[in-house]
Amino acid sequence: MFAALFKKASPWDMFEEGKKSWQDFNAREQEAIIRNYIPKVRYLAQKQKSRVPAHIEYNDLLSAGMMGLMEALGKFRPESGFAFTTYAEGRIKGAMLDEMRRRDPLSRGTRALVKALQEAMDRYENKRGKRPNENELCKLTGLSLEEVRSGLQAMEQQVTTDMDLLAETLSNEAMESGGTPFRTASRNEVVANIRAMLGKLSERENFILSMSYIEEYSLREIADALKVSEGRVSQLRTQALKKLRDLYTRNFGR
């Protein structure tokens, strides 16, 4: 019993509790801390892999996540009031998203396709006050239905990655703020602006984003609920994400 009471704390426990900083541990202790968090990195890489295009490899996400972990270990400050696991998760996921952005999946041809669709959508919306459907996009661009759907899917992947990165950026900024009044007020203002942006979406667009990214329903399940095609759900989701990105860019200049 007494042995248990005086059991030496593990390096990662001491690190989590803020009793020692990363630089104060010796090489063997640092290695033990890293090994302790590797399962978390693997879990996050597997979870991210299930949401990304096929060309993104699990090992690439894992490597990026490990770099994020190392960065978190060096920058973590216990006085911030956050547990290291919470802080590290934001850094790890952010590093994975950066890797996804770096490995640009769009070929020159796909980029031209996305640009043509975007220009056609903008012209149509400016003239008629609404977004064109897939068949209308075919007529506007001269593209086949398959090409239109491929371009919309590529556009959605771009926007989704951007919005994921935005969420991670805001999360990291909040954790690094140290709780100072200026930083807290700044973040509250950002949150309020995002809520205002969401309020500018239609009820259907809000529903689709919530079902897709919070409840994690499939396109088929959402389509069944709305009694529309999967293609229509995909298009609505793409335009909702683009609206959020455009509003964010105008408000925050990123």
What is the arithmetic mean of pLDDT?
A: 76
The description of the largest β-sheet is:
none
> How many angstroms separate the termini?
58 Å
Compute the number of helices. 12
Radius of gyration: 22 Å
The helix content is over 70%
**Tally of distinct domains:** 2
Sequence stretches where pLDDT stays below 50 over 5 or more residues: 1-6, 177-188
Overall CATH architecture of the largest domain? Up-down Bundle
Secondary-structure element series:
HHHHHHHHHHHH
Q: Would you identify the CATH H-level superfamily of the largest domain? A: PhyR, sigma-like (SL) domain
Morphology? elongated
- Fraction of residues in β-strands: under 5%
What CATH calls the topology of the largest domain is: Butyryl-CoA Dehydrogenase, subunit A, domain 3
> Structural class, please?
mainly alpha
- The total strand number stands at 0
CATH top level assignment of the largest domain: Mainly Alpha
Task: Give the tags.
254 residues, Rna Polymerase Sigma Factor, Chain: A, 2 domains, 76% helix, elongated
Any overview of this molecule?
- It contains twelve helices and no strands.
- By secondary structure, it is mostly helical.
- Helix 4 packs across helix 5, helix 6 (108-128) crosses helix 8 (145-176) and helix 9 (181-199) runs antiparallel to helix 12.
- Helix content is 76%, strand content 0%.
- The chain folds into two domains: 9-105, RNA polymerase sigma factor, region 2, helix turn helix motif (Rna Polymerase Sigma Factor, Chain: A); 107-254, Butyryl-CoA Dehydrogenase, subunit A, domain 3 (Up-down Bundle), CATH 1.20.140.
- The model is unreliable at 1-6 and 177-188 (pLDDT under 50).
- It has helices at 2-5, 11-16, 27-49, 58-75, 84-102, 108-128, 134-141, 145-176, 181-199, 203-213, 219-226, 230-252.
- The radius of gyration is 22 Å and the shape is elongated.
